[in-house]
Structure to design on (222 residues):
């Protein structure tokens, strides 16, 4: 596990130091579960395992919250137990983070793990019609995308000086998400269709929103 490099996480931590983003870190989780260990019946992603070996959680005052885990509290397990009433296929996702004070969740997709066991990341919207928005090809690419998001906010004068103009993550920054070529390849192959376009998502407006999201990503990747 310690051999897994996570440049995206490093970039995010550097961004938190460079910009006025308060980051609350927790001590490493001693005895953190290894890659593939079951968390509520779901296999733990290798990069998540490496993350928790280094940090016991991460909270940014910019809304991103990665579940805290240590010897006293297993936020990872608690988060997945909390969302155990989701219908399939969403119940089989492994929730690891969320937007503070909102129901949006970030989760890995164990069923889409690659040959190395790395799982892609989706944003889950459980409001009314539950669906998932593909966000990164793996956990470290997710951290990298969020770091780029912070860089965009604080390096663009019209955003930096006007918080009301800040784009949302990930929906408002398709150009950042589309830089993940592996994710785009999975989208083109229809690997995420079972989470986006399936019977549980019956609302036409929701379906159209998802199609617009995919279209934005394709346009940004050209």
């Amino acid at each position: 596990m310690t051999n897994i490099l996570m440049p995206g996480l490093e970039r995010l931590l550097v961004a938190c130091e460079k910009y006025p983003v308060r980051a609350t870190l927790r001590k490493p989780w001693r005895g953190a579960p290894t890659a593939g260990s079951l968390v509520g019946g779901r296999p733990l992603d290798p990069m998540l395992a490496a993350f928790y070996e280094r940090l016991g959680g991460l909270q940014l005052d910019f809304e991103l919250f990665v579940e805290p885990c240590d010897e006293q509290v297993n936020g990872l397990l608690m988060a997945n137990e909390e969302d155990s009433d989701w219908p399939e296929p969403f119940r089989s996702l492994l929730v690891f983070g969320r937007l503070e004070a909102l129901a949006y969740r970030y989760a890995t997709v164990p069923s889409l793990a690659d040959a190395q066991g790395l799982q892609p990341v989706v944003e889950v919207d459980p409001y009314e019609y539950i669906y998932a928005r593909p966000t990164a090809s793996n956990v470290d690419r997710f951290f990298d995308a969020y770091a780029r998001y912070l860089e965009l906010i604080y390096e663009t004068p019209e955003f930096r000086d006007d918080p009301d103009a800040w784009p949302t993550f990930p929906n408002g920054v398709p150009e950042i998400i589309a830089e993940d070529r592996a994710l785009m390849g999975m989208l083109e192959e229809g690997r995420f269709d079972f989470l986006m376009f399936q019977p549980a998502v019956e609302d036409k407006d929701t379906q159209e929103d998802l199609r617009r999201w995919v279209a934005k990503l394709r346009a940004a990747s050209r």
Notes: The mean pLDDT is 88.
